[in-house]
C-alpha cells in the first residue's frame, strides 16, 4: 500500500498488481507535494534491486542479487536489438566499464578525460599511492600522452592460440590515418630514458625474454621488421639476424659521418648471386683497405668450400706469410678477369708500394719455388709449369718468359714460330759490348729432314 511523508518528504510507492499476475511495475520517487516532479527506476521482472543511501560515503548504493545487473546509458533510442550503450557492471568478479553494442549498433570509443589544466587521471590499486598510475600530458609535450607509474608497467596479453590477432598493437591515434609530414623525420616509438648510475650498475634499454615451455616447428623470432606484407629483416631466437632476399638487402658499416655523398663504408651484400664483402666509397670518400685478421697465436684466416672441400688457410710462419690448401692434390688456381687490357692480371710487388729489398749481405729471394721430391718408378715432375693456350694471337712477340731489369732485357723465351722454330733471347757479351742476342732452335739444313741444332743468328 502506498505510503507518504507530508512535510517536504518523499513518497515511495509501487503500483499494485492483480493477485497472481506477478510483481508490480516501476518504483517511483516522487516529491510529496501535489504536482511535484517524478523519477522512475525500472526493475526487471523478478529482480531484486535495492537502491539505498550509503551511510559510509554519503552516496548512493546499488545492491543486486544478480552480479551481471548493470548501469546502462544508451546512445540510441533502440535499447534491445540495435543499441549502443555504456555499461557499468561486474563480470566474473571484475568491475567493468565498457562501451558495447548489439548486432545492428556501431562500435564506439570509450574516452576518459581529466579537467582542463589537470595533469591527468589516476588509476590506483590497493589504496597505495605507490601503486597508482596516472595518464595525462606533460606541459612541455602537450600533444603527447604520458603513462606514469612509480614501479613500472606490466603489459599482459590474453592471446593464447590465435595466430591472426596480435597481443599488443601500437596504432595511429585514429584508425586508418597515417603520418603525413612533408619534411623531417617522424618517429612512431621512441625510448628516451635518463640514466644517472654509479658503481657497477648497468642497464638494458630494451629487453626481450621468452619462456619456451613447448614450441612448434615454425620460425621463432624475437622480432620481425616488414614493409607492408614484405618481410625485410628478423632476429631469430637462436641468435640469427636474417635479411630477406631482395634488392638493397645489405649490411653497411660507415667509416664517416656522411652517409650519402662522401661516405666510406664496409658493405656485405649479394651481387649477381655472388656474396661480396666490399670496402667502398662515394665520390668524395677515400679508398680504404679491407683486412681479415685472425687472433694472436691463431693459425690464420681460413677459407672453406662446401662440405669441407677446398680448405684454404692464409697465415704466417715467423716473418713469412703462408698460403696453404689442405685438400690433397688440389693446389691453387689464380684466375684473372682481364680480357682486353694490358695491365697484369696477377702481380707480385713489394708492399707497401715503393719499398725495396735492403739487406747488406746474403741473398734475398722474392719468389722461391722450393719443392721436395721423393718419387719412384717412372714418375716425372715439373717444378715450374708454364702453359699458354693460344686460341688466336696477334703479330707481336709471343713470350712464355721475359726477364729484365729496369735498365735492360736479359732473358726471354718465345713460343714456337710459324715455321716451327723456337727462339731464346739472352744478353751476351759480344766483343766487350752487351747485346740482346737470339738463339734459334730450328733447322740448320733444310735438306736434312728431322735434324735440329742450335745456332746463333745475327
Report on this model:
The protein has about 450 residues and is mainly beta. Among the domains are: about 40 residues, no CATH class; about 45 residues, no CATH class; about 45 residues, no CATH class; about 60 residues, no CATH class. The chain contains no helices and 25 strands. The chain has a five-stranded antiparallel β-sheet, with no helix packed on it. A three-stranded antiparallel β-sheet has the order 1-2-3, with no helix packed on it. A hairpin with a 7-residue loop joins strand 22 and strand 23. The radius of gyration is 46 Å and the shape is elongated. The N terminus is likely disordered.
Q: Record the strand order, biggest sheet.
A: 21-22-23-24-25
Q: Specify Rg, calculated over alpha carbons.
A: 46 Å
Unreliable parts: 1-14, 17-26, 28-48, 443-453
Q: In what range is the share of β-strand residues? A: 25-35%
Number of strands: 25
**Class from secondary-structure proportions:** mainly beta
Indicate the topology.
Layout: E1 10-13, E2 27-31, E3 38-41, E4 49-54, E5 59-64, E6 71-74, E7 84-91, E8 94-101, E9 120-123, E10 133-138, E11 141-149, E12 221-227, E13 230-236, E14 241-243, E15 251-254, E16 264-271, E17 274-281, E18 300-303, E19 312-317, E20 320-325, E21 399-404, E22 409-414, E23 422-430, E24 433-442, E25 453-457
Antiparallel strand pairs: 1-2, 2-3, 4-5, 6-7, 7-8, 9-10, 10-11, 12-13, 13-14, 15-16, 16-17, 18-19, 19-20, 21-22, 22-23, 23-24, 24-25
Amino acid at each position: 500500500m502506498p505510503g507518504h511523508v507530508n512535510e517536504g518528504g518523499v513518497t515511495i510507492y509501487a503500483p499494485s498488481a492483480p493477485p497472481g499476475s506477478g510483481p508490480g511495475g516501476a518504483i517511483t520517487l516522487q516529491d510529496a507535494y501535489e504536482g511535484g516532479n517524478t523519477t522512475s527506476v525500472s526493475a526487471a521482472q523478478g529482480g531484486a534491486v535495492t537502491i539505498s543511501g550509503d551511510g559510509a560515503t554519503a552516496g548512493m548504493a546499488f545492491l543486486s542479487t544478480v552480479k551481471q545487473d548493470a548501469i546502462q546509458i544508451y546512445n540510441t533510442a533502440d535499447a534491445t536489438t540495435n543499441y549502443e550503450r555504456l555499461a557499468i557492471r561486474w563480470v566474473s568478479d571484475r568491475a567493468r566499464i565498457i562501451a558495447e553494442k548489439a548486432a545492428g549498433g556501431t562500435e564506439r570509443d570509450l574516452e576518459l578525460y581529466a579537467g582542463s589544466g589537470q595533469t591527468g587521471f589516476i588509476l590506483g590499486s590497493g589504496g597505495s599511492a605507490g601503486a597508482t598510475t596516472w595518464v595525462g600530458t606533460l606541459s612541455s609535450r602537450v600533444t603527447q600522452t604520458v603513462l606514469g607509474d612509480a614501479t613500472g608497467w606490466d603489459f599482459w596479453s590474453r592471446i593464447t592460440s590465435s595466430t591472426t590477432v596480435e597481443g599488443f598493437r601500437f596504432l595511429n591515434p585514429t584508425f586508418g590515418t597515417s603520418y603525413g609530414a612533408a619534411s623531417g623525420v617522424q618517429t612512431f616509438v621512441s625510448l628516451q630514458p635518463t640514466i644517472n648510475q654509479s658503481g657497477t650498475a648497468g642497464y638494458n634499454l630494451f629487453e626481450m625474454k621468452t619462456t619456451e615451455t613447448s614450441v612448434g616447428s615454425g620460425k621463432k623470432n624475437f622480432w620481425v621488421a616488414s614493409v607492408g606484407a614484405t618481410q625485410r629483416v628478423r632476429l631469430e631466437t637462436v641468435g640469427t639476424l636474417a635479411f630477406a632476399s631482395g634488392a638493397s638487402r645489405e649490411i653497411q658499416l660507415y667509416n664517416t659521418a656522411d652517409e650519402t655523398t662522401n661516405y666510406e663504408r664496409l658493405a656485405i651484400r649479394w651481387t649477381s648471386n655472388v656474396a661480396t664483402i666490399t670496402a667502398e666509397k662515394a665520390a668524395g670518400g677515400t679508398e680504404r683497405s679491407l683486412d681479415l685478421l685472425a687472433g694472436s697465436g691463431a693459425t690464420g684466416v681460413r677459407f672453406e668450400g662446401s662440405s669441407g672441400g677446398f680448405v684454404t688457410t692464409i697465415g704466417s710462419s715467423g716473418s713469412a706469410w703462408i698460403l696453404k690448401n689442405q685438400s690433397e692434390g688440389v693446389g691453387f688456381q689464380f684466375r684473372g678477369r682481364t680480357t682486353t687490357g694490358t695491365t697484369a692480371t696477377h702481380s707480385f710487388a713489394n708492399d707497401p708500394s715503393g719499398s725495396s729489398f735492403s739487406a747488406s749481405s746474403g741473398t734475398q729471394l722474392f719468389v722461391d719455388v722450393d719443392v721436395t721430391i721423393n718419387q719412384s718408378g717412372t714418375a716425372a715432375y715439373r717444378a715450374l709449369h708454364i702453359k699458354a693456350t693460344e686460341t688466336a694471337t696477334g703479330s707481336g712477340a709471343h713470350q712464355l718468359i721475359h726477364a729484365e731489369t729496369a735498365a735492360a732485357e736479359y732473358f726471354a723465351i718465345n713460343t714456337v714460330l710459324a715455321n716451327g722454330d723456337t727462339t731464346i733471347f739472352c744478353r751476351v757479351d759480344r766483343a766487350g759490348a752487351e747485346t740482346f742476342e737470339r738463339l734459334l732452335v730450328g733447322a740448320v739444313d733444310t735438306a736434312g729432314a728431322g735434324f735440329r741444332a742450335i745456332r746463333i743468328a745475327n
